[in-house]
Amino acid sequence: MTxxxxxxxxxxxLANVPTYKAGKQPAAxxxxxxxxxxxxxxxxxxxxxxxxxxxxxxxxxxxxxPSANALISVLADYLQVPSDHLIVGAGGSEMLxxxxxxxxxxxxxxxxxxxxxxxxxxxxALNGATQKPVGLTNEFKHDLTAMADAITDRTRxxxxxxxxxxxxxxxxxxxxxxxxxxIPSDVLVVLDEAYWEFITDPAAVNGLAALNDYDNxxxxxxxxxxxxxxxxxxxxxxxxxxIISQVRKALIPFSxxxxxxxxxxxxxxxxxxxxxxxxxxxxxxxxxxxxxxxQGWNIPDAQANFVWLPLGDLSTAFEDACVAQSLAVRNxxxxxxISIGEPEAMERTLQVAAEFRKQHYPTA
Length: 364
Ligand SMILES: *Cc1c(COP(=O)(O)O)cnc(C)c1O
Hints:
Blueprint: E1 35-36, H1 50-54, H2 69-79, E2 86-89, H3 91-103, E3 109-114, H4 118-126, E4 130-135, H5 144-149, E5 155-161, H6 173-181, E6 188-192, H7 207-210, E7 217-222, E8 235-238, H8 241-249, H9 258-269, H10 271-295, E9 306-309, H11 315-324, E10 327-328, E11 330-331, E12 336-339, H12 343-360
Parallel strand pairs: 1-10, 3-4, 3-5, 5-6, 6-7
Antiparallel strand pairs: 2-8, 7-8, 9-12, 11-12
Helix pairs in contact: 2-9, 3-4, 3-8, 10-12
The structure holds pyridoxal-5'-phosphate.
């Protein structure tokens, strides 16, 4: 009797799953303070009280509150939404993978911008879905017309990222509304707002307000960026209860630890200061962008805590020039993403950029 043998216990879909590549650590260089500008982490200390709250005594033999009730109620208060519109998990990443799990499988399609957050492709591939990455416009914005055109009757999920990681521009409210009118109500739309606190463009879509208009919309947010808590792994989603109750089925139970829940509560309690600090980072960003443009670089609108240099084939050469100066940046092949860091880090990056232009763009 013949048996079909596969030589592996693993699902065929795994062959197409890229491994997530995290931002590198800076290399040591003599006499230079190393700076990590490769993961969009906040360059400021946590707010007073946040670490203290995380360090409050707790019994590590016990599981944390699985529904994070205290955190949910603080978030509900702050966002002015009912508790059943909210769910928390181990970072926005857990939200994005859970949403992919509840919508995607072989035979379904997902539409997302490219380049954008690498996890979108990874989560889609893991679920065996057909991926429809849609290139950005020449201003490095979502091409929402092409994205709407890419939707078929097999599309279950559309991912939007505003501001877009790694390029920086937001989606405007009018662009978003025009897009949503073209999206069938049985397609789930994710608006990834990991960096919303850094936005200064008043025309940008406000996800929370948009939730009132669209029942198929889900916001993904995180405390990893503006709150400076990436190491504690806390993110959340906001949507109508019929979506939230499905997301819950795909989350890992107890994924947010008790210290993380405590730290998140303390940070949300001081959210006004979080927002003020995000605006301070935005000012440094705007100054950095202005200086780069002054050097002759074509920099897209930067609305988060990072800046995109569309270097094309020169991306690796630029990354190497940064490495030599003990600066870790993110080389994504089409370009290099630089997170906003300490003043000295920005100053040194500007020097690298100026020198790089002299060498590689001599006529410019
Ligand atoms: C950082 C980031 C997230 C969430 O990261 P977590 O640390 O898992 O919360 C989500 N989306 C984008 C676009 C990001 O850059």
